[in-house]
Amino acid sequence: MRGESIRSALRQLRSHAGAITAIAALAVLAAAAGPRLLFGPRVAVQTAAQRDFVQTVVASGHVEAPHRVDIGVQVTGTVESVPVDEGQTVAAATVLIRLEAAELRAAADQAELAVRQAEAHLRQVREVDEPGAEQAVRQAQANYDVAHATVRRNEDLFAKEFIGQAALDDSRRAEQVALAQLRTAQQQLASARRGGSNAAGAEAALAMARAAADAAHARLRYAVVQAPVAGTLIARDVEPGHVVQPGKVLMVLSPTGASQLVVQIDEKNLKLLHEGQPALASADAYPEQRFAAQLVYINPGIDAQRGSVEVKLAVPQSPRYLKQDMTVSVDIEVARKPAAILLPTEAVRDADTAAPWVLKVEDGRVHRRPVQLGLRSKGWCEVLQGVRPGDQVVPATAANVTTLADGARVRPVTAAGG
């Protein structure tokens, strides 16, 4: 009887085996999918942070001296020597080019001789001509005094009829001749004295000779071309034996000291720039070594082909390794905000439109929330309204973000960088 009951129970179990298997499978499925159905899918989120934020504009460009000095000659001549090489750093007054100067030296010597000759002539006027003119005036005055006294005496004698009219007329003519000689001597004296025509002519001749000598010595100095300032020769186009003329650039000198960086900025960032903004720069050859710069010039024109604007930055203390035309990267600080609320740019939808928004996690559900943005830089956005520090938002790059409806349940998982 007992065995029969056991066999009956086994037959019943076999008949319900399929149903039991299905129930077990449903139980396993419910255990696996229950959290998703009850609490929603796992979703990567990023958390709003609060910290000091600096907005920068990044650009690349090259090093350039504030000005370059073109070196040439001022007289035509043959190059005797070029004692410097391209790329060489030179001090101020270093000899760069020497010209053959034999003819120029001869001209300078001739001009010096002309100066000495003019000086001798002026000394003759002052030491010989003027004293001689004074003596001539005294002699002419004496002759005139004698002639004048003779006329007075002859006039008395003629009145007393001791002499005739002819004798009186002769004495009067002699007086007139003496007077003319006196006036001539006086004029010669005035001319020989300082300020007179002879003295002025001698002084003018001396001044002209000295000016000609100065010009000759200047031309002689032009035979030696020196560096006007310290710097580096970045170009040289002259060799000994070349015949050179004024107006041709033979060398280019890049002065040492303050350098400047010339970079191209996307024109969409033009509204963010103004002179005086600080920047950090680095040469591509030395990316680990950053140095300070300052925006000093914004080109008023736009490059239409590239859609960019040229700006220049001064480098007050140039690193020793910084060289002409080096490629540099520059971060220009255009704004700074303390304790800003920040989100990764990828967490903000329609960030470039007038109505940006985010999918914010609130009480286990996602909700579309409008936000107001402020500064942006290097993949981060400042949120002025709509998000608080610690809020979690679903980035646009989340795996299943497209299936999430507004109000859907989710299980947030902090994403890398969130």
Automatic annotation (TrEMBL):
<dbReference type="InterPro" id="IPR050465">
    <property type="entry name" value="UPF0194_transport"/>
</dbReference>
<keyword id="KW-0732">Signal</keyword>
<dbReference type="GO" id="GO:0016020">
    <property type="term" value="C:membrane"/>
</dbReference>
<protein>
    <submittedName>
        <fullName>Efflux RND transporter periplasmic adaptor subunit</fullName>
    </submittedName>
</protein>
<feature type="domain" description="Multidrug resistance protein MdtA-like C-terminal permuted SH3">
    <location>
        <begin position="340"/>
        <end position="394"/>
    </location>
</feature>
<dbReference type="InterPro" id="IPR058792">
    <property type="entry name" value="Beta-barrel_RND_2"/>
</dbReference>
<keyword id="KW-0574">Periplasm</keyword>
<feature type="domain" description="CusB-like beta-barrel">
    <location>
        <begin position="261"/>
        <end position="333"/>
    </location>
</feature>
<dbReference type="GO" id="GO:0042597">
    <property type="term" value="C:periplasmic space"/>
</dbReference>
<dbReference type="InterPro" id="IPR058627">
    <property type="entry name" value="MdtA-like_C"/>
</dbReference>
<dbReference type="Pfam" id="PF25967">
    <property type="entry name" value="RND-MFP_C"/>
</dbReference>
<feature type="coiled-coil region">
    <location>
        <begin position="101"/>
        <end position="128"/>
    </location>
</feature>
<comment type="similarity">
    <text>Belongs to the UPF0194 family.</text>
</comment>
<dbReference type="Pfam" id="PF25954">
    <property type="entry name" value="Beta-barrel_RND_2"/>
</dbReference>
<dbReference type="InterPro" id="IPR006143">
    <property type="entry name" value="RND_pump_MFP"/>
</dbReference>
<keyword id="KW-0175">Coiled coil</keyword>
<dbReference type="GO" id="GO:0022857">
    <property type="term" value="F:transmembrane transporter activity"/>
</dbReference>
<comment type="similarity">
    <text>Belongs to the membrane fusion protein (MFP) (TC 8.A.1) family.</text>
</comment>
